Automatic annotation (TrEMBL):
Residues 24-72 are annotated as: Disordered. PANTHER family: CUTICLE PROTEIN (PTHR10380), CUTICULAR PROTEIN 47EF, ISOFORM C-RELATED (PTHR10380:SF173). The keyword Signal applies. Residues 40-52 have a biased composition (Low complexity). It comes from Diatraea saccharalis (sugarcane borer). The keyword Signal applies. GO terms for molecular function: structural constituent of chitin-based larval cuticle. This is Uncharacterized protein. One of its GO terms (cellular component) is chitin-based extracellular matrix. InterPro entries: Cuticle_Struct_Prot, Insect_cuticle. Residues 1-16 form the signal peptide. Pfam families: Chitin_bind_4. Keywords: Cuticle, Signal.
């Protein structure tokens, strides 16, 4: 359930980040945009749950900043232990037409139903979405017999011989 809440919040924020900053908060109207605030690269561990009902969770912090150049950062926390932060900057990769995707990095943290704190940090750039965290499953090591078979097949393929 918390994963869905975090995912829904990320989608909403990502969608709102695609809109330009308020048209009245621009240098054209004499009100310059505030300089972007640095956002920590990792979210602190999830706080102790203050709300026992995920549907009744309240937002205790919500910071957002969208710059005219397309860069943004946001962070929010809820009283049930969910914390999210992300910052993104357009990166010009050139090309014709120019390719200028937003490169983002951020993190999120929450408490799993079993009470385990979950914390994931990520980078999303030209190499794709790259999450990191202790709770992300990893593949088991390749058994020795399979590794030997793969080495044998590689030698056979490079030697040009057939099976």
């Amino acid at each position: 359930m918390k994963y869905l809440v975090v995912l829904a919040a990320l989608v909403v924020v990502a969608h709102s980040a695609s809109f330009p900053a308020s048209r009245f908060n621009s240098p054209r109207f004499g009100v310059p945009s505030p300089p972007p605030r640095p956002v920590p690269s990792r979210v602190a561990p999830a706080p102790v749950r203050a709300s026992s009902n995920d549907q009744a969770a309240n937002i205790v912090r919500d910071d957002r900043d969208i710059s005219p150049d397309g860069s943004y950062n946001y962070a929010f926390e809820t009283d049930n232990g969910i914390a999210v932060q992300e910052q993104g900057t357009p990166r010009d990769f050139g090309g014709n037409p120019p390719l200028v995707p937003v490169v983002a990095q951020g993190s999120f943290a929450y408490t799993a139903p079993g009470g385990e704190p979950i914390s994931i940090s990520y980078v999303a750039d030209e190499n794709g979405f790259q999450p990191q965290g202790d709770s992300i499953p990893t593949a088991p090591p390749v058994p020795a017999q399979i590794a030997r078979a793969l080495e044998y097949l590689a030698r056979q393929a490079s030697g040009g011989s057939r099976f």
